[in-house]
Predict the 3D structure of the following.
Amino acid sequence: MPELDDELMERYQKGDENAFTLLVRRHQQPLVNFIARFINDKDSAEDLAQETFIRIFKAANRYKSENAHFKTWMYHIASNLCKNELRNRGRRDRYRVDNVVNSGSDSDGDAEQIDLIASAPANPELQPEIALERKELRNAIQKAIAELPEQYRLPLVLRDLQGLSYDEISEVLELRSGTTKSRINRARLMLKEKLKPFI
Amino acid sequence: MNCLQAEEHFSAHFEDTLDYQTLQGFEGHLAACEACQREYVRFQESVKAVQQLPQIEPSPYFMSTLQQRLATEERDPSSLKAIAATGWKQLLNGLRRPKWALGGIMALILAAAGTYFYQEGPLFNQDLHQVSVSSTSQKQQIVPLPEAFPSAQQSRRLVGDDSQLQRRSILSTPAQPMQQRYMLKQVSYTNASTSGGL
């Protein structure tokens, strides 16, 4: 039976560096997926995932499993980093919009979103038309997720893409359980409307 | 249960977490409302489509890059350069907030104004003979003591009370050498053109 995350953290706190490596190996893929889906940018997702692990590495001695589970703590750190990134990106975009007139930057943004979907592994068994249709749907879904307001997008990604429980999401976002449930339902309803032409 | 209330329970019904009473109400409404039936079907399909999005994999270099960064992180905090850089970054990040940016701008204006008045004041301008020039008839001026002004022509430029000058010179104490060399004097100008080209 694999060791629990909290046990690995305890081992790391006692000086076992392999325990930290194990934690990274265990969580690197879900973390990159979460960040990439949330901020809609795979390249920055790797940087932010690494930054999350660095924060964990630095704060490891302050970690107490009775206060928060490792997974929720990790997602909490990652969420905050993502929010900062989006805020900074918003400032940069505002600056760019103010300074660049009709330079076609919107089409660049779309290309970035599509690249994120294209980077996902394709199923070779599918016929080309079906594969293309599915890719279009994936693009539309990712675009729809990216368009959701941050406060709805974050719990939706944690729930439907990362598979966290409502209690875990409440812990990550520091929200009451009722608020978390209502935000996820609201996010799904918004998404349903955005995907109307496709579903 | 109406349509809006039914919509609030879509997720709970999809995840099978409704209590018995609410479940009865929800399913009763859906059985009677075709619009809600359609919306609920679309809701389920869109949630399933999101859940089936493929997982994004990290690059094969993720671990090695992280290890390199961690090695740098271990060294960096001990070096003063890194601490200084972090300090500057924090300061600049702080200034990105409008409130702090405004405060920063105000501080800069105050500092600039302070420097300007300080430079215009007598303490900074001890090596200049004249504080300011204007068309007003009364001016406060720093005048060197007679021994510091050997040229008679230069002395004539200053129209003032010599006895006052000497009295102040006598009053200056030896403990303050800089003040001994210079003194403030009230100078009267009738006209700049007639007072030696001031």
Observations:
- DSSP finds nine helices and no strands in chain A.
- Residues 99-114 of chain A have pLDDT under 50 and may be disordered.
- The two ends of chain A are 41 Å apart (CA to CA).
- Chain A touches chain B at residues 21, 24-25, 28-30, 32-33, 36-37, 42, 45-46, 49-50, 53-54, 57-58, 91, 116, 119-121, 137-138, 141-142, 145, 156, 160-161, 181-182, 184-185, 188-189, 191-192, 195-196, 199 (CB under 8 Å).
